[in-house]
Design brief:
The protein has 96 residues and is an all-alpha fold. The chain has one domain: Monooxygenase (Up-down Bundle). It has four helices and no strands. Helix 2 packs parallel to helix 4 and helix 3 runs antiparallel to helix 4. The longest helix has 32 residues. The protein is elongated and about 65 Å long.
């Protein structure tokens, strides 16, 4: 049987993998469709700032699962934001 600290780490790690993996389909969809009109700048900026806070918190408390998951999720969120900027600019240029 797992001890309490091991169980806590396992729950945190599994949760981290799942919440991070949830963003992969969104990145792939935006990339595949070359369209990010349905993505909200404000939502992703606020979310990214929150992730920076979680990474900082994870460093301060020494939690590798918190740092790793939130750093990876931040990378995915910033990728989505970057693709949105790129595709929105391309769409605006194509219209003119």
């Amino acid at each position: 049987m797992l001890s309490t600290p091991e169980l806590v780490t396992l729950v945190g790690s599994v949760s981290a993998v799942l919440t991070t993996a949830a963003f992969v389909p969104q990145v792939l969809r935006v990339w595949r469709l070359r369209d990010a009109r349905d993505i909200s700048y404000l939502t992703f900026v606020i979310f990214s700032v929150g992730l920076v806070g979680w990474v900082t918190y994870g460093v301060l408390v020494g939690s590798i699962p918190i740092v790793a998951a939130n750093a990876l999720t931040l990378g995915l969120a910033l990728t989505i934001l970057g693709l949105k900027v790129k595709f929105d600019r391309a769409a605006a240029t194509a219209v003119h």
